[in-house]
Amino acid sequence: MEHIADRLVKSIKDKKSPIVIGLDPVYENLPTCIKSKYSQDIDGAAQAFLEFGNAIIDAVCDIVPAIKPQSAFYELLGYRGVKAMEKSVAYAKSKGLIIIDDSKRGDIGNTSKAYAEAHIGSFAIDGKCIREADSEFMTVSPFLGLDGVQPFVEAAKRNNKGAFVLVRTSNPASALVQSALTEAGKTVSAELAEYVAEEASKNLGIMGYSSIGAVVGATYPAEAKAFREVMRQSFFLVPGYGAQGATAKDIVPFFNPDGLGALINASRSVIYAYKNTCSDDCSTDELKDVTRAAAEVMHDDIYGELRNSFKNLVY
Amino acid sequence: MEHIADRLVKSIKDKKSPIVIGLDPVYENLPTCIKSKYSQDIDGAAQAFLEFGNAIIDAVCDIVPAIKPQSAFYELLGYRGVKAMEKSVAYAKSKGLIIIDDSKRGDIGNTSKAYAEAHIGSFAIDGKCIREADSEFMTVSPFLGLDGVQPFVEAAKRNNKGAFVLVRTSNPASALVQSALTEAGKTVSAELAEYVAEEASKNLGIMGYSSIGAVVGATYPAEAKAFREVMRQSFFLVPGYGAQGATAKDIVPFFNPDGLGALINASRSVIYAYKNTCSDDCSTDELKDVTRAAAEVMHDDIYGELRNSFKNLVY
């Protein structure tokens, strides 16, 4: 079976695009053309989330290798929202996209293992699989320590899936925990980076990359080079471009010189682009066109900057 | 409306019980009397989780003030598992129990806000509430920093609900992140404790306690006194008693001298007690009896120790 890290590398090269689009459905922000089709109740909201997500997927599926549904927004609708997310994930998979389940789960022992199998694994009765998660990657929160992260890494290896461990997040107050100094005199982020590098080295595809990666926020470009040197074989999932303020220039140091090793995420700036250019009663086709155009602008911005910066870009 | 912290205090006093039972449904561990009723597929597993959870709730609802469903185990069954958890929560609520949703969510900004409203809040369209979460408390992971925790605290205040922020967890490797030193020269746990204390002081019930609390593991009794001094008005949610090794003596320093301020959790040692005493084909009534007996043993152990230790116990 093809290693999931190889599939990710190939998809980035094929589409010439190291970009992820975040699915962050917020009811108030959905266009009227979608909301007006459904009842104003919890079932109607879940249907609207699903249709909106699928429209975004249609719009970007041949421009980007991956999408990143944000579970928080789906959970807001309870189990019906979770069901809508599962359906969107299945739809994205049918369109050839790689799915990064941005659920930032984290616990210890068997609880972490259950989260991992729930999101990037499967559930079996008497050895017979009765449910399989469609997502290929998930994000993992390491607050409880490495014994809490290890079950996610093991599930990723066991299931040919992947995990992005939160190492340095893009928000202003991330330093409190992430820049604190461990017993070894390193920052928490630095220790986590070493752990990710070690686990990545044990789980490589034939193209030299691992499916054990890190979340490293684009808002800290100064630290990117150091993280890149430690985690050479890992992909970074990089939030912070677009609505959070980072530019294409800012994200260059997150990549290896081959133009691989980073996935730049944008959510609101692409999926709600329609608000800047369309009237609220735009059609679904117009929504898709505008979303696609916004994703293309992002693509050209980032791909252009990578071509300028790296002579040995492999795509 | 009664402040949720006052309701918690009253319920502890009424039941003379500062105890929480964790709902950790694991299919292999469920008794045959429940599993055999349902098909061996995902719907059947979800029904078995629900029936098992409700049996536990029946068994302990007049001995303990609260239950703590662990979302990881439910998520393993996908949206059907989430639905089963929602139904168990509603059932527990109907039995007068307070519910602590142990989902350890954590993100930033609007994403944290969505998680908070999903688990201890509501979802509205045009100002009309169309879904309300039944849980009173949730656990919150602070890896991303205090700007990521604040939306949970604000939602708790807005909705008369509560949050337990992870401050010091019970697992062996928790020190890596939680004992790291911040810029101010304090441990991450100590800084989080100060934050919790500050937010608690702004959200007090008339009985002197707050619904903004902390998760502090029973496996670190030496630190309990210091945390207790900082977070006088907060409840501690204390995992680690029972299966994880902490004894009743160990958990005394987690309480204030009034016998309040801590909720001791046990999960496996109570909900799977039937495995030690029953044959696998026990009846549901036997399951309930054994579970109830295990909860009573735990209650007597802890309540006895508190009565020995505190002259001014208020219950």
| Tally of distinct domains of chain A | 1
Q: How are the strands of the biggest sheet of chain A laid out side by side? A: 1-2-3-6-7-8-9-10
The end-to-end distance of chain A, rounded to whole angstroms, is: 24 Å
Low-confidence stretches of chain A: none
Strand element count of chain A:
10
CATH architecture of chain A: Alpha-Beta Barrel
Characterization of this structure:
2 copies of one chain form a homodimer. In chain A, the strands form 2 sheets. In chain A, strands 1-2-3-6-7-8-9-10 form an 8-stranded parallel barrel, surrounded by 7 helices. The first copy, chain A, is about 45% helix and about 15% strand. Chain A has helices at about 5-15, 30-35, 40-60, 70-75, 80-95, 110-120, 145-160, 175-180, 190-200, 220-230, 250, 270, 275, 285-310; strands at about 20-25, 65-70, 100-105, 120-125, 130, 135-140, 160-170, 210-215, 235-240, 260-265. In chain A, helix 3 packs across helix 14 (about 285-310). The first copy, chain A, has one domain: TIM Barrel (Alpha-Beta Barrel). Chain A is built from 14 helices and 10 strands. The first copy, chain A, is an alpha/beta fold and about 325 residues long. Chain A is globular and about 55 Å long. At the A-B interface, helix 4, helix 5, helix 6, strand 5 and helix 7 of A face helix 4, helix 5, helix 6, strand 5 and helix 7 of B.
